[in-house]
Design goal:
heterodimer; A: mainly beta; 7 strands; globular; disordered C terminus; B: alpha+beta; 3 domains; 4-stranded antiparallel sheet; 26 helices
Chain lengths: 115, 741
């Protein structure tokens, strides 16, 4: 198992990624490599595009308010809503937008601060 | 009022559980049975208190008592009745209460059924159970009270739409029965150590509890996968998510335990190992509850993040190290009575099976907690994705599949050439034949993988080699499945033939009597068949799955893998608390019309906006009237939503998607047997109907659920009371009591 683990981690698509907050991600300059960025969906930033296949939004760091624009094409979970906790996995594009290949979302307590 | 009663009842339950623990522990020192009797009554009393607490919370949920946070956050006036009841385990405090409730119920049953048995063990059993109950009761009384309240609020927030599914009603309690159930064998293991009764009574007397826990945990895992499959719309059922892993780990170690106790029973070996296994299984169950509830490792499933983390960490630490200390003290009592004579023996094959099961569990634990480990080591959190889980675990899962075939048939002590030939020649040939068949069916892909493997081998490139080898996993899995099924079939047919010859019974009667005479053995075979079928489902559906997404106007058609999907049209609806677009679809499979499907996309409007609430109720009221008005009003809601969104600067709706699945069980297309055609609609335009359809073709995926049913059947056979087994156990108990006296 240890052998398989070592061999597996050598491969680029082994699925391992640095897990960082938005703030940490931005602090590294323009980091190369695979990242999982954790933050909250900035309220009002969700743009549902391409008839539900693609979404552009902003992830915000709940502590420092640092923001990161994200572009994601793929399966958008139903829990993906304003203020949801999200984890986006992918790479940063040259234009600064984070191109995500995976989007995980955890529902905030629904509607509590609706107005 | 009810919540005050509930609050108070939980407090009394805590006092009763604490008393049970203390009195029972004192009872192990003091003479006479008075303290022990009182302790056992304490368990009953605690159960009664918790039951009143559960009842009070349910009443609060049903009467919309939104003063309680556990009601306000997880229920609402409009919530359908079953989900009001199920909201009990939606909240963290409620789910901890459910844990305590199930545990106290099981503890009470244990106390009641052991009134006249296991008297040497029971004081320690009650101490252990009381301790675990006390911990959970401290949590629900002090840290996360289900009766924590605020001001009265007019309406509740309501359950997360994704949780509004009938699986929500049964999946969490099923899983909890599994988690909680392992406490009973754990308590008996600790009692056996403490009371120095380290024979095989402790696990034989709890064998059915262990199977019970293992059965519910396994079923719960499958239900969770099924729920994810039909609810989340990504066409998959397992993502190596921390919460999924949390439930898998104790199931794996529990499976190892169920097997290794057989070796202790037959050969008096692996005594330390068995105590260790049940300790690990119990700790993983607690850890699983903790992981699900604490949000310590980010997961899509953890519906709560909270302050129960430290309490759990302390408890887990105390249980683990305390038990380990006790185990180390008792090591001299746990010497093996015989030795392993050959690697070609049943003992050895069970040992390998244990090593693989525990190895997989350890790997899953390591990978799941890797973010914590890497942060502690290097200061950077590194997460592990599904690919690495698969790379590491799939080969071992295949080894396990092989061992499932070997274990039950290989001889004890040392297998002879004759034994191997008699039991494994035919199954082995069957396996090889199935494997080759699938390799030939794969054709060119298999040849390319083979040559890739050859090149990688020459250049010592292990990563590429493994990558190429992956193409052979499904044929290997099918081959091994053929091997195992053949071993089981031969066992059954031989035994039935013997009965027919000796007793002149017909085949069906012989089968029934055969299974009845040794439920554990034959039920075990049925479970093995179920597991094999599950493996086949997993292998095929992950290797051969196809996916596409396409934009269609009503009337349009899309094609994938021999299927054609026509988008006939759509209807709008306003029901319960959502507006939705139901798309009407026709499906053709290999040119043959196979049926119509309806898949829906729903939006739950934020009813806190009064204008939206009014518009929604108007639409619902128009439902039975003129269809055009109904439709116009719903379209009006969509328009209102986008207007409100512009004003509010945020979304005022939450989505939910209803997938549609066509399951193929027709014998007209045997190659598609068990296949799913799975459709998710995306972004349905309420005016034009234009929509994207994401379609998956999942071959064999239903084998997963069918295998699950076989597993349920087999486990049920194993758990039915067995009179002969009971008599043997009672004789053994009498013997041990005499020896102790």
């Amino acid at each position: 198992m240890a052998f398989l683990f070592v061999v597996g981690t050598q491969k680029s698509d082994g699925g391992f990624a640095y897990y960082v907050t938005v703030d940490e991600f931005l602090a590294h300059g323009a980091p190369a490599g695979h990242f999982r960025v954790n933050g909250k969906v900035k309220s009002g930033s969700i743009e549902r595009l391409d008839s539900g296949r693609r979404v552009a939004f902003t992830v915000v760091d709940p502590k420092t308010a640092a923001t990161l624009p994200v572009d994601f094409t793929g399966i958008i979970p139903d829990t993906f809503v304003d203020d949801a906790d999200v984890v986006v996995e992918g790479k940063r594009r040259p234009d600064g937008v984070f191109e995500a290949t995976t989007l995980l979302a955890k529902c905030p307590s629904k509607y509590e601060a609706a107005k | 009022m009810t919540s005050t009663i509930g609050h108070f009842a939980l407090y009394l339950a805590l006092v009763a559980a604490a008393w049970a623990t203390l009195a029972s522990w004192l009872g192990t020192i003091a003479s006479g049975r008075g303290l022990q009797k009182s302790a056992e009554r304490g368990i009953y009393a605690s159960f009664a208190g918790i039951a009143i607490g559960v009842l009070a919370l349910e009443i609060a949920l049903l009467t919309n008592d939104f003063r309680l946070d556990a009601v306000y956050h997880y229920s609402s006036v409009a919530q359908p009745l079953p989900y009001k009841i199920g909201a009990l385990w939606g909240s963290q405090a409620g789910s901890l209460l459910l844990w305590a409730f199930l545990l106290s119920g099981m503890a009470s049953i244990t106390v009641a059924t052991n009134r006249t048995k296991n008297r040497a063990l029971m004081p320690w059993v009650v101490t252990t159970l009381g301790l675990v109950m006390t911990f959970f009761l401290i949590l629900v009384n002090v840290v996360a009270s289900p009766f924590a309240s605020g001001p009265m609020r007019p309406d509740g927030v309501g359950l997360n739409p994704q949780l509004k599914n009938y699986w929500m009603m049964i999946h969490p309690p099923t899983l909890y029965l599994g988690y909680v159930g392992f406490t009973i064998p754990f308590a008996f293991a600790m009692a056996a150590l403490a009371a120095r009764r380290t024979g095989d009574i402790w696990f034989r007397t709890t064998r059915r509890w262990t199977i019970f826990a293992w059965f519910f945990l396994g079923t719960g895992i499958l239900m969770g996968s099924y729920w994810a499959y039909i609810e989340l719309g990504w066409g998959g059922y397992w993502a190596w998510d921390p919460v999924e892993n949390a439930s898998l780990m104790p199931w794996l170690t529990g499976t190892a335990f169920l097997h290794s106790v057989m070796i202790q029973e037959k050969k008096g070996m692996m005594k330390v190992w068995n105590v260790t296994l049940i300790l690990i299984t119990f700790c993983l169950s607690i850890f699983g509850t903790f992981l699900t509830r604490s949000g310590i490792i980010s997961s899509v499933h953890s519906f709560a993040t909270s302050d129960i983390g430290p309490a759990f960490a302390w408890f887990l630490g105390i249980v683990f190290f305390g038990s380990l200390l006790l185990l180390v003290q008792r090591l001299p009592d746990l010497a093996a009575e015989s030795r392993l004579e050959s690697v070609l023996s049943r003992e050895a094959s069970f040992l390998f099976n244990n090593m693989v099961l525990v190895g997989i569990a350890a790997t899953v634990l390591f990978l799941t907690t890797f973010p914590l480990i890497s942060e502690a080591a290097t200061g950077r959190k590194v997460t592990m994705g599904p690919p690495i889980f698969n790379i590491v675990n799939v080969p071992w899962a295949l080894v396990l599949l092989f061992l499932i075939g070997v274990g039950p048939l290989i001889a004890w002590r040392k297998a002879t050439g004759e034994n191997l030939r008699r039991n494994f020649l035919l199954p082995g040939l069957t396996g090889v034949w199935v494997f080759l068949l699938f390799v030939v069916l794969e054709g060119r892909a298999a040849r390319e993988s083979l040559s890739g493997m050859g090149r990688a081998l020459v250049s010592f490139d292990a990563a590429t080699f493994l990558d190429r080898l992956k193409a052979f996993y499904p044929p290997i899995c099918f081959g091994l499945a053929g091997f195992v099924l053949a071993t089981v079939a031969i066992e059954f047919s031989r035994a039935i033939a013997v009965r027919r010859r000796q007793n002149g019974e017909n085949a069906a009667l012989a089968l029934v009597r055969l299974v009845g005479r040794n439920r554990r053995r034959w039920g075990g075979y049925v479970v093995h068949v179920g597991v094999v079928v599950v493996f086949v489902g997993i292998a095929a559906s992950s290797a051969y799955r196809k996916e596409t997404v396409q934009l269609l106007d009503p009337g349009g058609t899309m094609r994938i893998d021999g299927y054609a999907l026509t988008y006939d049209g759509y209807r709008l609806e306003a029901v319960n608390d959502y507006v939705g677009a139901i798309t009407e679809l026709s499906v053709w499979q290999d040119g043959r019309f196979v049926g119509r499907l309806e898949a829906a996309q729903r939006w739950h409007p934020n009813m806190l906006f009064p204008e939206l609430r009014t518009a929604f109720h108007d639409a619902v009221a128009a439902r039975t009237g003129d269809p055009a008005t109904y439709r116009a009003r719903i379209q009006g809601i969509f328009a209102l939503i986008s207007r409100l969104e512009q004003g509010a600067g945020r979304e005022v709706k939450t989505p939910s998607t209803e997938v549609a699945i066509h399951k193929s069980f027709s014998l007209a297309a045997p190659q598609r047997f068990g296949e799913d055609f799975y459709v998710t609609p995306l972004g349905v335009d309420p005016i034009s109907g234009k929509a994207n359809f994401r379609v998956f073709v999942n071959p064999f995926v239903n084998f997963l659920w069918l295998g699950g049913l076989v597993f349920v059947l087999g486990a049920t056979i194993c758990i039915l009371p067995d009179a002969r087994e009971r008599q043997r156990l009672e004789a053994q108990m009498a013997l041990e009591d005499r020896a102790a006296a």
